[in-house]
Structures are given as C-alpha cells and as structure tokens.
Amino acid sequence: MSIEIQRPPIRKVRPALRVAARPSLSRNLLVRSGGLVVTRPALRIAPTSPLAENLDFLPYPYVDYGRRLTPQGGVAMMYKDIDTRFRYTLRRLFLWSLATGAEGWYLRYHSPIHNLWIGLGCLLALAIINWLIVQRPVEVYRDVEVRPDCLIIEGDVFWLRHMENGWPSFRRDDEGNQILCGIYGTRFVEYLTARRFDDFDRAAEVFAAHLQQAMRQLWTGLP
Q1: What are 68-71's contacts with CB under 8 Å, separation 24+?
Q2: What does the alpha-carbon distance between residue 173 and residue 152 come to, in Å, rounded to a whole number?
Q3: pTM for the model
Q4: For 50, how many CA atoms within 13 A lie in the half-sphere containing its CB?
Q5: Is 122 buried (19+), middle (13-18) or exposed (0-12) by CB count in 10 A?
C-alpha cells in the first residue's frame, strides 16, 4: 500500500528593487590642489544618510587661519598673532594706574569701611584684579602674500632678487613659535613670528608649511 504525499506548489518571488538616491553635486566648494585653492564639484551627501547626521558635529579644523589666491597670481595667508609693541605696555600701565587710583580714592573717602588694614587689603585685591584685566594680550590678524617676484608682509615688500643667499626659512624658539628669518641684501632679517597660543595650537606649523610650499611653487615652479 503506497501513500501519496502532496507537496505545496513552488511560488517564485521576485525581490523588490530599492532605488537608492544618488548624491547630488555642488559646484560651490573650494578645495586645495597642490597647495592652491581651486574649484571643483563637491559631493553632497543625502540628508537621510547616517554620515550626513554626523557632519554637523565635525569641527572646522582651520581656527583663526586661512589662505586664498590673489588676482596678482600670488597666495595670501592670514593668521592670528599678538601685538607686542611698547605702546600697548604703556597703555596697560596707564589704565591700571587710573583704575587703581580711582578705587583707592573711593575707599579712602567714601567707603563705609574705616579700618585701615581692611581698606589696604581691599585696595591690593582690586589692584591685582585690574592688572589681570589690563595684561590680556592684544590679538591681531596679520596677512602675508607670496607673489612670483616678492614676499609681502603687512604691506612691506621684500623682493626675491635681493634674497641672493637663500630664501627665508622658519626657526622654532623655545616656546614653540615659528620665526621666519633669513638674509635680505646684506642684513639678517627676522621677517615675522607666528606665535602659539596654547599647547594644542598648531597654526604656526601649518602656516609655516603652507608658506614654504607657496614659495617653492611660485619661485621655482615645482609642485
């Protein structure tokens, strides 16, 4: 006696095709090619992509620093520096003396505290606070431009034909600052100083690398 077993019919299922959105192109992004800033289409990530959600949290890496091409065929760079001119030291002393003197006059003639030692202690504390306020460094932005025939630093022009003994080069001091120096004509010149603001600041090193790369490209034609 044989038993027949019926098998269910086989149904062929075609998987549904999922159409992925293609990334769009944006032509407004400036990228650097060979050290120079050029324009090329940029890849724009779809808003639904997980990577697009994390792009808003990525910090901008070039803090207080930038570079661009100039209409004269050069490369201009900008970096943040500290103005150490002597007139700012005199201004600090004047503001500190003015503020401390006014506070001392108030403590002497209008303060409800009549104890001499307490008044002197308050005046000393105010003098320290005033000095901490006025001694804050004066931050400025300096611009440097490298052209095919010269180097322009804050409006001062240094011609390439007068750098007969070699191009300017960077030297690092004990504080981690980058000093651009070299022989110009018959004199040894310190052209500029790129200062470091904290232990994690590497803008001086980046600026030094970009400036040397621009000099090599514009003055020799090498990439």
Answers
A1: 68/37, 69/36, 69/37, 70/145, 70/147
A2: 23
A3: 0.62
A4: 0
A5: middle
Secondary structure letter of residue 174 according to DSSP: T
In tens, the pLDDT along 18-39 reads: 444 444 434 443 444 444 444 4
pLDDT in tens, 120-172: 888 899 999 999 999 888 888 999 999 999 999 999 999 999 998 899 999 99
Could you tell me the two tokens for 222? 């090498």
Q: How far apart are CA 221 and CA 215, in angstroms?
A: 9
Contact (CB, 8 A) for 129 and 137: no
The phi and psi torsions of 130 (rounded to 5 degrees) equal: -65, -40
Cα-based angle 194, 197, 200 (whole degrees, multiple of 5): 105
Task: State the residue for tokens 């500029």.
Answer: 192
